[in-house]
Every structure is written in C-alpha cells, then in structure tokens.
Amino acid sequence: MKINSFYNLSPDAVINALEKEGFDLTGHCMPLNSYENRVYDLRCEDGSHIVAKFYRPGRWTQEQILEEHAFLYELEENEIPVCAPLRFADGGSLHIDGGIFYAAWPRTGGRAADELTDNDLEILGRMLARIHNNGAVKSAPARMKLSAGAFALDSLDFLLHGNFMPDNLRARYSEAVYQIAEMYERVSAGVPTHRIHGDCHLGNLLSGSRGWFFLDFDDFLTGPAVQDVWMLVPARDREGLRQREVFLDAYRQFREFDSAWLSLIEPLRAMRYIRHSAWLAARWVDPAFPRAFPYFGTNEYWHRETTDLEEQIAHCRCNVPCFMGSANGGAEEERELTNSDFFWDYDDR
To answer: 346 — phi, psi (to 5°)?
Structure first.
C-alpha cells in the first residue's frame, strides 16, 4: 500500500511500510504523542516493540535527516546513551514511501523527569558535555544554523507575509523582534558553535533501568552549547540559577564552558517564543493544530506574545550584565516562569 497522505496515515499503511522492511508485526499500532511528525508504537510477534517515525514532508531533506542519524550513530559508538535508529535490511536507516520519509527506532523504556536532583544534574551535565565533545568533531553542513536571522527575522517575515497577526500589533511585535535579534547578534559574536541537540528539554530525556538517555534529535542543528544548557536547566529564579551552576560544574569536568556564554540565554529564550509562533503558523494547515492550539492567532494570543517579548527585552536590559545600563531602571521583579516558557507545544491555558 502506498502512503498517500501524511495527515491521514492509516494503521494499515504504517504496518505495511514496516512489514516491507522485514519486521514481523502483530497488527498493534498505537499513535504516540508528536505534533511535528507521525510516530507509532508497533509490536512484533516476538513480543518486542519498535517505534516507526514518519517525517513531516517538506520539513527536512533526505540529506538533513541522514545527518541527524549519522550524529546519533556517532554518539552511540562512543557509548553515549541516545536512541539511534535501527538499520533496515539494506543497511540504510531512512526509506521513503509515497513521498514520506520514515525510520524505525527501538522502543526505550523509562520515565520522563518532573524535576532533577543535584545528582541528576551532575550526571546530565557530564553527559551533555560528552555529546558536545562529539558534536565539535565534525560539521553538519545540511542542517540549520542557530542565528538571529533564522530564528527571529525569518520567523517574523513569515508571520508578517502570512498575515497571521492583527494589524494593531504588527509594529510593536516587529520592533520587539528586531531588538531581540540585535541583542542576540551582539552577545553571540565570537561564541563557538558546533552540532548540538537543539531541543534539549526534559521531555526529551528518559530515565530507566540503565540510567538517563537522550531522545528526539529531530531539531538537531549547529549552535552554541548554551542552547542545550538553558533548555535542560531553564529556570532563572535563585534555585534555578543554583541548579544551573551544579549542572555546569559537572559539564566542565569534560568540556570547557565560558560563563560569558550565559548572556545568550535570555535572547535565546525570546527567539524561542518567536520561532514557536512561526511554527504554529506554518503548521496551521495540519488539522491537528487548530484542534490542539485553538487560541493561536487571536488578538489575546498576539497581545500576550508581544508583551512577553517586551518583558524579555526589559529583563535583558536590567539583569544581563552586557545589556545593563542600556535602558533606564533597575533590576526588575522576576516573573514566575511556567512550562509554556520552556516547551514548544505545552498548553496550560
């Protein structure tokens, strides 16, 4: 059976595609939580499970996906606990059917972490440093590079040309994006970049009988190490800053980390807000998105997004050393951050 619609993948199409690869399946096909791709848990006749991942058409090229897979194999070969794709019978890790790329992965057991102990932070700090040591060995020329242009300005251009925001907020929102892009360009000058996870939040970690391991390198890119650091330890209150120091003390046992790079965190956080809005806009034709994010595109949504960006700018000017003094006023009172500040698709509204 040919796969003819990414939005309407049927269990039969999924099972047939993987049986064609030689997997002996029972017919069990359970969708797993993923907005960006289509992911399914499949049970084999011997009682084992595989995870089939069907990549959203048009997002990544074959070369880009294979660079992700190659990085995972490198990490696996260096005994870094990640989840790498299985090899098909022909030795490849990526096939295509009906214009949709797909891969198979081992199903990993374990639990996601709600919070991290100091011991967890130390283990993960050393693990991330090892990932970054490997990331710095080679380049990924086909993958995206984290920059103010790619994450902020291109996202703004897409939102404006698609008329996704109300006219009364376009100027304010645009000005905030331009300021954030300028801030990031300023603080990122001279900061080294290399291959990183790119979306390294707690939801992409599992802890099982064999310890911690990293999942979902779908947003793997070239960028500064601090992008992965702040995503794993995102809070900026007193306890969050203490946890980040515990994490970085362990990270530095395996890899250098200059404290000056921490100045990138707040502009990076702001660019994540911008990119998230552009991601929702780009996916709005997918029927799953209006159902999952009904608030997107409303005047209330854009007012909150604009205010959040302006608050980020004010926070940088009052609390980040290299920006302090660029605006009037002293240290601001901290806004309590929520899960929606840290996760692409978290909805607590």
So the answer is: -80, 135
As beta bridge partners, residue 82 has 214
Per DSSP, 200 falls in state -
Q: Which of 46, 154, 199, 348 is catalytic?
A: 199
- 172: number of Cβ within 10 Å: 16
The verdict on whether 216 is a catalytic residue reads yes
Q: Say whether 12 is catalytic.
A: no
Q: What is the pTM of this model?
A: 0.89
Please give the pLDDT value at position 337. Answer: 52
Tell me if 288 sits within 8 A of 35, measured CB to CB.
yes
Q: Mean pLDDT, the chain, as a whole number?
A: 90
Mean pLDDT across 97-109: 89
Radius of gyration over alpha carbons of the chain, in Å? 21
The helix or strand, by DSSP H or E, that contains position 240, with its residue range, turns out to be: helix 238-251
CB 167 within 8 A of CB 198: no
Cα–Cα–Cα angle for 74, 264, 217, nearest 5°?
25
The full length of the chain comes to 349
